[in-house]
Design a protein that fits this description.
YqfX-like; mainly alpha; transmembrane; single chain; elongated; membrane; transmembrane helix; DUF4190 domain-containing protein; 88 residues
Length: 88
């Protein structure tokens, strides 16, 4: 019975895969609510997952893109001045 992880197994891969999935979920959820908080968290988690070499690279890139989209939507809503119509 081992109480610690053996040196042969890579426990960090599972952690980075979890970060990639969390970045994707938080970025997707951030499109609906709390852009200011969830967007930057998704960007940081996706960056960490990519930097550590996740096996779910596509999911991490989606989380990064969604986190950036969260901030773009927030900036658009803040600067739109509450007008949602085109003025010709």
């Amino acid at each position: 019975m081992e109480l610690t992880a053996s040196a042969r197994t890579r426990t960090g891969t599972r952690d980075t895969d979890g970060m990639a999935v969390a970045a994707f979920v938080l970025g997707l959820l951030g499109l609906l609510v709390m852009n200011l908080i969830l967007g930057p968290i998704a960007i940081v988690l996706a960056g960490l997952a990519l930097w550590r070499g996740t096996a779910r690279r596509g999911r991490a890139l989606l989380g990064l893109g969604l986190g950036v989209a969260d901030l773009v939507i927030l900036g658009t809503l803040v600067t739109s001045d509450g007008v949602l119509a085109w003025n010709f």
